[in-house]
Amino acid sequence: MSGKYTFPGHSTKKHCKKSKVKSVSCKAESYNVSGGTYVPVILAHVNLQTDIASHVKLPSYAKEVKSIKKNVSIKQCEVLKHPASRNKAKIFVKGTIHKNIQYVESCNGYLRDYSVDVPFTCIDEVYLSHADRQLDSQKSTLTHEYKYTSKKKHGADESKFGSYTYENFNEPIECVLKSADIFEIDLTKDYDKIGRFINLTERMDVNLWFMLVQNQERYEHCDGDHNIPCLKDQEKEALEEDAPFRKNQQKSLLELIQERIDQLKL
């Protein structure tokens, strides 16, 4: 049998068929709250440290490694905040260290290039400050289904039924990579008769410095409405709640990065 098997009645089209619409009526009303802004809010500054051991086999034997250029990039960064967890969240980080290795095969040979990607994955728990409360959704009629009595009032009318569904769209928490540093040791092995090697064993201490950011609505004047996120009151409460956890967060992210660079220069 050639080709893919499809079940009877199964459609291979990308989009579903459209129903016939008999009537549509629309009405829109706007409402304003003074002093409102929609801005990105920094929930946390994160320093993620990971230890990586990798093996690289060069395409040919090398006499000496001249330089290794490295670029760090995050391919995926997801923040998972459990509804029952108020101030903590799980972060799932997947990234790559791209390396360009330049080496020579002999004492007077040409300079050769070899590029390789070193992938890494990290999962850890971090503390968040004043993240928006996540709202759930109900898209199935199994929970909020409405039945109507039949004409004889002896049971439900099977030809008439209703439902109530709703969807809330929460703002995602995003990662903003600010800096990265790598401390690395390379070990050469598998030498030939004239002292050239072909394999490298790498040991890396990688530090990623990034921010967790979420777009939020903020209002300067709340007028006693607790349903409106007030900028001043909410930030004051967050600072009071965060006090036990902010002992090591008094300095800005840029100051911490600069301290890290200064330590490596010593």
From TrEMBL:
InterPro entries: Exosporium_prot_C. This is DUF3794 domain-containing protein. The lineage of its organism: Bacteria, Bacillati, Bacillota, Bacilli, Bacillales.
